Amino acid sequence: MDRTEENIDPKQALNEIRRLEHKVRTESRWAGWLWLIVGFSTAVFGVFAPPITHGWQEYVVTIGFPILGFVALVYALQQQVISRAQQHLEYPVTWVFCGLVLVNVMFRMIADPTHLSALVIILGTLPVLPCCYGTWRVWRA
What we know:
mainly alpha; 6 helices; elongated; membrane; transmembrane helix; transmembrane
């Protein structure tokens, strides 16, 4: 197959580069949405996880959270565009997030809270912070 090289002027080349950069930036925003959804769903789970909830709410919270995590994982694996910001933030944000979730789980195992208190709310919502930071950095890039 014979390929002929197209000569484009510098202005057209810069326009094409800007168009591609905008496309990559737009398509890589999925990571910000994913972190935001996982962060806030973790906060809902962290605050309302059993034994705080009872009856049907207990089952919705307990089953819904892992299902959401699995769907998020499948969605993330299907994405092809990863921004530079996400590449640099992925591991630090994930480690801090996991550490804060572990603190919440340890508190629940040791204290065994049976009602909603300020400490349950604070420890349940702490994992949102690294997710919001990661979202902000990815969307700002």
